[in-house]
Design brief:
The complex is a heterodimer of chains A (169) and B (329).
Chain A lengths: L1 E8 L2 E8 L4 H8 L18 E4 L2 E4 L12 E3 L12 H8 L9 H16 L19 H7 L10 H13 L1
Parallel strand pairs in A: 1-5
Antiparallel strand pairs in A: 1-2, 3-4, 3-5
Helix pairs in contact in A: 2-5
Chain B lengths: L4 E4 L3 H10 L3 E4 L5 H6 L7 E4 L8 E3 L5 E4 L4 H6 L1 H6 L1 H8 L4 H6 L2 H5 L51 H7 L3 E6 L2 E6 H4 L18 E7 L8 E6 L10 E10 L2 E10 L6 E2 L1 H7 L6 H12 L11 H19 L2
Parallel strand pairs in B: 1-3, 2-3
Antiparallel strand pairs in B: 4-5, 5-8, 6-7, 6-8, 9-10, 10-11, 11-12
Helix pairs in contact in B: 5-8, 10-11, 11-12
Classes of the chains: A alpha+beta (169), B alpha+beta (329).
Chain lengths: 169, 329
Amino acid sequence: MDAQITLHVDGVERQLTLDTRTTILDALREHLGVISPKKGCDHGQCGACTVLLDGRRAKSCLALAVAHDGAEITTAEGLAEDGDLHPIQQSFIEHDGFQCGYCTPGQIVSAVGMLEEVRYGWPSHVTEDLNVEEIVLDDEEIRERMSGNLCRCAAYANIVPAIREVLER
Amino acid sequence: MRPYSYVRAEDVDGAVATLAEAPNAAFLAGGTNLVDLMKLEVLTPDVLVDVRRLTSDQVEDLDDGGLRIGAAVPNSVLAADRKVRTRYPALSQALLAGASGQLRNLATTGGNLLQHTRCVYWQDTTTPCNKREPGSGCSAIEGHNKNHAILGASEHCVATHPSDMAVAMAAFDAYVNVRGPDGERRIPIEVLHRLPGDTPQRDTTLEHGELITSVDLPPVDFFSNSKYRKVREQASYAFALVSVAAALDIEDGVIRDARIALGGVAHKPWRATKAEEALRNEPVTEANFRAAADIEMEDAEPLGGNAFKVPLARNVIVRTLMELSEEGR
């Protein structure tokens, strides 16, 4: 079964006719040529496919495109403004927060979404006081909140400071 | 993935009617479990009825002082809700102990309750499994069963329910509101999930076409003194080996009331009613906590690979109750 849908990808309206089985990840990569979200496991376990879906970070490999008709999607490619890299992107470069780079677009989008969750005051599994007003994002918090993004090169030791420094700026 | 028709109903009644007419149809909400299982062809619905935008996505106060959680509330939003954090902290903690940030943003309250076991044999269509194919046998009983049940299992199935959220809701005596072809029902969460018995293909007592619309948490003051503790093989992003949700009501060093539910040990969130009964009106002592945990674990029947879960569950119960008694004085 095919369906006609509209996705707003990195600020551009895109109209598509898709098999209803198509995930957002496959719609982006195979139909729109937006290849920054990566297909790692395709089962929601690795986080390489992370995009912002209507402003919140999500695994695009488990979201059916047809179920998100009209959605606003931001990929790593859409984070830069007027040619200036997003502070998270710049910090990943400065801290060498990657080796092979395959997980990196997902890591970066996930970090951007995660910082927004922290601004909302959302607690995490390691937040000591559930009722705290303002989250203090130390390394333990960053590691917990980024646990949905795997890096097989294990660049974690540089990813954590890359994110921490953006927060400190 | 097998082909299917995608349907977006106008409202809940329309969704229920559509499903009721299609015996092999399924509801779709966040999709984090269903889409994965469809890729694996463990589940092969021929119609998907999208309900994500049909039920409430709000957490609201009830007139009786309890809370109503819309079925479409994402796990992340529910965990962060200020009312939940202060009045039902074990529920926030349980949600935050499950999955990852990206999954919690997609996954819904109703979908979390209805997620499927992570038994590896159930997810592997090349192996026998009575839950997937009744009568084919259980591969886990003699196989890799470290993650499987120690309580309430049967000779047909030893799978565990994977949800953290449902364990906290079980401890809080939640009610699940359901709309079906015959109207509305209000089901105690204790009755929603079931033990496998000789029909392990049925995870819940819901009939085909029944849709969870919301979950109600009753108003009980001491639920604010509650805690969720999860033991897993990684610091984050893993299913529970054993987990416990507990709440204690203490006055003058005596336990007036207790709620204890266990995750990772059974085909459903396991309400530890024997332990709760043993604790009522007893003094707050570690020995009493240990005695209560022992009583609950008397019925445990571990498999070849999961005997460790019996002392683990016992210790996790005692540790959680000790912490609650120190904080709840």
